[in-house]
Design goal:
Layout: H1 5-27, H2 33-52, E1 58-63, E2 66-69, E3 72-76, H3 82-90, E4 93-98, H4 104-112, H5 120-126, E5 132-136, H6 160-164, H7 173-181, H8 185-194, H9 200-249, E6 255-257, E7 263-266, H10 268-274, H11 278-281, E8 297-300, E9 315-318, H12 321-329, E10 331-335, E11 341-346, H13 349-387, H14 394-425, E12 433-435, H15 437-454, E13 458-463, E14 470-472, H16 474-491, E15 497-504, E16 512-519, H17 551-560, E17 565-570, E18 576-583, H18 606-612
Parallel strand pairs: 13-15
Antiparallel strand pairs: 1-2, 1-4, 2-3, 4-5, 6-7, 8-9, 10-11, 12-14, 15-16, 16-18, 17-18
């Protein structure tokens, strides 16, 4: 047959996959991902080869010094991997034939056969493998009835296979076999040679040839075996060196112990970690230092350097469970595809501990604020109902107004804490929609009107006629304005004014609708205006006031995360004006994606990093 370059490439690829599967089945279990992958690739290649052969069988034949594929020489035998050559030689296989439809399971059985000690054909038959067949090498035997054989000419070298098929001339073959099995090597060879010729000189010469050939073959096999041993030894040494380099790179301190685990030496770094000098710890067992409260001690159960048996993989540990859990979570092992450890990746343990504490803090804050909000809502509703009773005298109304202000203030604090917790955990989600700017402004003003009335503030709403619709999360945008109005109420004296307005942007800002919250309060100094949007900061005319200091920081975050913008204009003694711009509603395909910070060159994003810094 004539093969094409593409077919030969398929054959070579299949030999590589088969060799890989033979090696990996000795290292891993059949369900290991590497074994599964090799078998799947082998099955796919067999399917391609069968298609290329028009559905015919695919056979591999090892013929003395060459490998044949369907009768065509592919490569010489010395270029075959040892694992594949050993499969042929161990079971005296001459040809392996793969029928159409051979599966990965069939290949798995063929690979597992190499560890079998019986007959190869029986092994495959027991497993119901029908699409892979084996043809064993057969040497022709000359029966005794064929008569005596002619001895080889004196000058002719006789090979071992030739002697193996010589017919008996004096004794039956069974007797000769029994005799040879009970003899030493040299005597057994002499017995065989004696059946070839009766001339002592010829016998001696053939014996010398046999012995020399035997030594040559033995040396060759020993060298071949040593190559594998050296390779495996080097592999183990490399694995150990890799492991040692990984472990030593993880620590500066070194503690040297004897075979019983007693401390012999410590470098200064190890002394600093333990908190005690070597003179105090020398001779003590490392696992007996039970007073260690902030350290983790892990030691192999068997630490002797010489051991003929496999060592135990068990570890002895001494450490507080919480600390050990933190250290374990701070380090990840890096393995290669063979499962060997080649490195590690770690973060400082205090960072892990800090994250655990922060998670507890966030859970506590979330639960606490939810628990506080429910009764506070009931209190506010009751106070609002009582405030509508006009029969109250001035003293009673003053007490009621104070209660309303404190309820609103407490509600504002709880809302700020809850929103800040959501921002930190990344759970503050927006649901943008087409909405009305007028409705947002009026809803925010109505929500804060009762509180404003307790300070006799004139709270008004002015909206520009024909305002375009905006694209925003209505509830979050109302909250933005409530935060700004709340801020104005706190810093505006009795009988002051607060004006809420909405107008369309002009010129370069025509893609926005702007909300303004203008008050007649104390105002803010120029040098302090950049600080008001930072967390835990309250500044008004240079004086700090009560509150969490989170309201404006959260407000700015919610505005920018909706692709909006916020600004402040203020002068001491003349009040403040906060302006919030929200984008106009457009077709859905043109709307920007929320919950991502826009690239705004003029914005100093340090406030955002500070706000979410962990």
């Amino acid at each position: 047959m004539s093969e094409t370059p593409d077919q030969k490439l398929l054959w070579f690829n299949f030999l590589k996959i088969l060799t890989r599967a033979l090696v990996q089945i000795n290292l891993y279990k059949p369900d290991h991902p590497q074994v599964k992958l090799a078998l799947e690739e082998g099955q796919a290649l067999l399917r391609q080869i069968s298609d290329a052969l028009g559905g015919g069988d695919f056979s591999l034949t090892l013929d003395t010094d060459k490998l044949l594929v369907n009768g065509v020489q592919l490569i010489t035998a010395d270029k075959l991997p040892n694992s594949l050559k050993n499969l042929f030689s161990k079971f005296r296989i001459q040809t392996i034939t793969f029928a159409k439809g051979a599966s990965g399971g069939d290949l798995l059985a063929l690979c597992q056969m190499q560890a079998h000690k019986g007959e190869a054909k029986a092994f495959l038959k027991e497993r119901g493998i029908e699409r892979i067949t084996l043809n064993e090498s057969v040497y022709s035997k000359v029966d005794a009835s064929d008569g005596p054989q002619t001895a080889p000419a004196p000058a002719q070298a006789v090979s071992a296979p030739t002697l193996a098929v010589l017919a008996p001339v004096r004794e039956p073959a069974e007797k000769i076999a029994e005799k040879i099995s009970a003899q030493g090597l040299e005597t057994a060879i002499a017995t065989v040679v004696g059946r070839v010729t009766s001339d002592p000189a010829e016998q001696r010469r053939i014996m010398d040839i046999f012995i020399a050939k035997f030594k040559e073959e033995m040396e060759k096999e020993v060298k071949k075996a040593l190559v594998e041993v050296h390779h495996e030894k080097k592999k183990v040494e490399n694995d150990m060196a890799r492991m040692e380099s990984v472990m030593t790179s993880m620590a500066d301190g070194v503690v040297v112990v004897d075979k019983e685990g007693r401390i012999l030496m410590m470098n200064p770094q190890a002394e600093a970690i333990s908190g005690r000098p070597l003179s105090e710890l020398s001779g003590k067992k490392i696992m007996d230092l039970s007073e260690l409260e902030s350290q983790v001690v892990s030691l192999a159960k068997e630490i002797r350097s010489e051991n003929k048996d496999d060592i135990s993989k068990e570890m002895e540990n001494l450490r507080p469970s919480a600390l050990a859990d933190t250290v374990k979570k701070a380090t990840a092992i890096i393995q290669n595809e063979e499962g060997k450890i080649v490195g590690s990746v770690s973060i400082p343990t205090y960072t892990v501990k800090l994250k655990q504490v922060e998670q507890l803090q966030q859970d506590f804050i979330a639960n606490m604020t939810h628990e506080l909000r429910s009764p506070l809502t009931s209190i506010k509703a009751a106070l609002d109902m009582i405030s509508r009773d006009t029969s109250k005298d001035d003293s009673s109304r003053g007490v009621l107004n104070t209660a309303i202000r404190n309820a609103e203030r407490l509600n504002s604090i709880i809302t700020d804490i809850l929103d800040f917790s959501k921002l930190q955990s990344g759970k503050l989600v927006f649901h943008p929609e087409e909405t009305s700017a007028e409705e947002i402004a009026k809803e925010a003003a109505d929500a804060m009107r009762v509180w404003a009335n307790t300070k006799s503030l004139d709270l008004s709403v002015i909206t520009e006629p024909g305002l375009p619709r905006i694209y925003a999360d209505k509830r979050r945008t109302v909250q933005v304005l409530i935060n700004l109005i709340s801020n104005s109420i706190k810093f505006t004296p009795q009988a002051g004014t607060i004006e809420i307005s909405a107008d369309a942007g002009k010129d370069s800002l025509s893609d926005f609708v702007f909300f303004s919250v203008k008050d007649s309060g104390c105002g803010i100094k120029k040098e302090d205006q950049a600080k008001v949007f930072e967390k835990f900061v309250q500044v008004a005319a240079g004086e700090k006031v009560g509150g969490t200091g989170l309201g404006l920081a959260i407000t700015k975050a919610m505005v920018v995360m909706q692709n909006g913008r916020i600004s402040l204009e203020s002068d001491p003694g003349r009040g403040s004006t906060f302006r919030v711009g929200m984008p106009l509603y457009k077709s859905q395909t043109e709307q920007p994606v929320f919950e991502q910070l826009p690239e705004m060159v003029e914005e100093d994003k340090s406030w955002w990093k500070k706000l979410l810094r962990k």
